[in-house]
Amino acid sequence: MKSVLVCVSAFVLLGAGTVQAQGAPEVVFNAGVVSDYVFRGLSQTDGRAALQGGVDADLGGFYVGAWASNVDFGDGTDAEVDLYGGYRTQAAGYDLDFGVAGYGYVGAPDGADYNYVEFMAQASRPVGAAVLGAAAYYSFDYSGADKEAAYVELNAAYAVADKWTLSAAVGHQWLDVSGDYATWNLGTAYALSDALALDVRYHDVDSPENDDRLTVGLTASF
């Protein structure tokens, strides 16, 4: 889920707000591998590769889903498992998405308090061959030592060619205990097929404890 909500790729932006016709739910599975699982500029796997996968069901704009990835926090935590749901619609030419997600961590040590819930509002709008978007996230009991936390992001994607898309995002994380920080990413995605995409992305963050990163990811949807 974090990979979907954060580091908004061209495929997320260009598909945001699509409302399915009433009827049987549309179910889509996804699976992928990434050289480093980066969330809001910070590695969740200590710079190592991650296997990820999930499933989404959409009915008339309402959606639910689940997503999982291995993580490495250096304390025995093995995996992140997310459950989420929300509603997508359109208004005044904008694609809108309102949702809530619960993030759970398998194998976390006692007292780590990693699990949390986050609320999200997202808007995007096509402008020629580009899509411009903005998103806001809020948690009343964020992961770890922090309680209240908020994150805002501006993002954009541009269809360079038939199978090539450039995308970028810039965001700021506010935390009530840990230090606030800004982050941005820039990358390109190539559609190897209708179901398979390759993404190469550079991430930077202004936190002195964290380095910039280059990630490569391969994702399939079916």
TrEMBL record:
One Pfam family hit: Gcw_chp
Signal peptide residue numbers: 1-21
This protein's UniProt keywords: Signal
Gene3D superfamilies: Porin (2.40.160.10)
Superkingdom of source: Bacteria
Protein name per its UniProtKB record: TorF family putative porin
UniProt source species: Brevundimonas terrae
